[in-house]
Every structure is written in structure tokens, then in C-alpha cells.
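ok so i was messing around last nite and threw this chain in just to see what happens. nothing serious, just curious
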Amino acid sequence: MALPTSKHEHILITGAAGFIGQGLAEALIESSSTIQLTLTDVVEPSIPHSISQHKSRITTVKSDLTDPSTIETLLSTPFTAVYLLHGLMSGGAEANLELGWRVNWDSHRGILDYLRRHLPGTVVIFPSSLAVYGPSAPGNVTSEDTCPIPQSSYGAQKLMVETYLNDFSRRGLLDGRIVRLPTVIARPGAPSAAASSFASGIVREPLRGERSILPVSRDLEMWVCSPKTVVLNLVHVKDVPKEAFGITRVVNLPGITVTVDQILQALQEVGGDKAVSLVEEARDPKIEAIVGSWPARFDIKRAKGLGMAGDCSLVETVKAFSLTLNR
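result:
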């Protein structure tokens, strides 16, 4: 099946019920009047209120992407670009090995195989993770040239999809863009199964007047990024010329290095002492082992060279999230 040749784009977002998927849908629709979206997840995604006036350009569908027949039905429509946002998060993938492999590997392999056979040349944007790396020595800077040695099943699964998509891109079967995301804070909604969920929880819950558990040391360093910047770069990477990537389609997205204590300081600046008092410290060795294995300092020259936007300050991120609570 040939891909569409007009300037109109039909873009698929999997995992679109999540907060990044919802933000990405908003940004893509607002970026061009010629974009049409299909949003899918294990529950039917909602259409963000801010773009409800464009609902005629948006299709939503519930789908289980671990089912090969569902993949075939979903991809019977030719898409110009596909964002693979669905997945079982790091803590969940570590707790349930079989489910993690079905969701984070089998479903992605099924989608990529269908696309390369039936819709060759499709642009595929895969948000990977800093979890593909192993621990780094204090002060070491990680780059795309750093050897990935994942210390979690989630990281291993992400790395396998990266390798698969990179090879299909090398062969000219697909046009992959693999972006390794920092820990995204602050995530709205309920706590997720991500091992790093606490990084959002110690901001989100206290600003709502609720208690939150801090399961790691205040001294732990993390590589983080605001949702706004992540979405901005996900939109941008879709249109980077494929020749600009060189021999690998992998790029580490920009972020900032912070300690957990600095997150709490930003919380205090925005929410005051009352908000900080709602954070209860209770160390969890399993969570510390997973998050502590992720590097916290990155060289982002490649991302900058590809036109990616840098992130804002931690206080700005926390302030922006607090404003969403007052809407």
C-alpha cells in the first residue's frame, strides 16, 4: 500500500490516553490545519478539551495492541507518521515480566513488522528512555555513544525496540526517530507504575493538599524534563530530515540534572512549607535500585544540533503544574 502523497498528514498516536499522548495530540492539531489524528489506547482516549473544536479531524479507538489482528485492523489505514507511546512503565514491567514483554516488545515488534511490510517508509517516532543505560560513575556524562547496559526489564525492552527500528531505518524500510526521554515531571493524574513516579508524586500530591511518599534519598540525582518540552520535541523530531540523523536514529532529549532535594526546594518555593510537610520519607530499596541505575548527566549536543528545545528551570516546571490545578 502506498503512503499518502498530499501535504495532508494522518498521524497515529498509540498510548494516547496518557498525559504525554494527550499533550501531543493538542500540539499536533494546533501545529497544522492539514493534520488528522487517530488516537488509540487500551481504553478509548478522550479528545482534549482545548482541541474539541477540531474533533472532526480526530478519530479515537480502543485497541489491544498485544493482539496481532487488532494491529492489522488499526494499520489498514495508511498513516504518514506513527508515534508509539504505549507501554508498561518501568516498575510495572519489573513486577510483571510476561506482561512487560508482551506490551513493551511483542506489540511493538508486531506494529513495526506490519508497517515495514505494508506501509514502507512510514515515519515512526519511538519514545525510548534513559533506562536503556546502566549506572554511571558520579560526574560522568552520558551521550548517544555511551554503551547501553539496562538494569531493568523495561530498559532492556526499550533497547530491543530501538535496535529493531534502527535496523529497519538503515535498510530504508521505515523512517525511525528514536528519542530517549528523561524522567518527565510533573505528571498529572494518579500515580503510575513507573519506578520514577515518586518524582511527580512529591510535587503533585502536596500541591493538592495530599500526602506523598518519597522512597529514595534526597541526594539522588535525576535527569528530568517538563512535559511541555517533551511534547515540543516530539512534534519537532517528526519533521527532522532523515539524512540529519547519520548512522543512528537515536537521540537523547534535553533535560536538566537535579537532586530530589532540589525538587523539594522547588515545591517549597511554589507551595510553601505546608506542601513540603506532606512529603513522607520512606526508603524503598527496589525503587532506589531501579532509579539509581539511571544516569543523571547527559551531553545534548546531538539533540541541539537537530533543533531540539532545551528545558526550563525546575521552579518554572512546578509553577506551570500548579497552575493546571487551578483551572
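not much to say yet. The CA atoms of residues 33 and 290 lie 42 Å apart.
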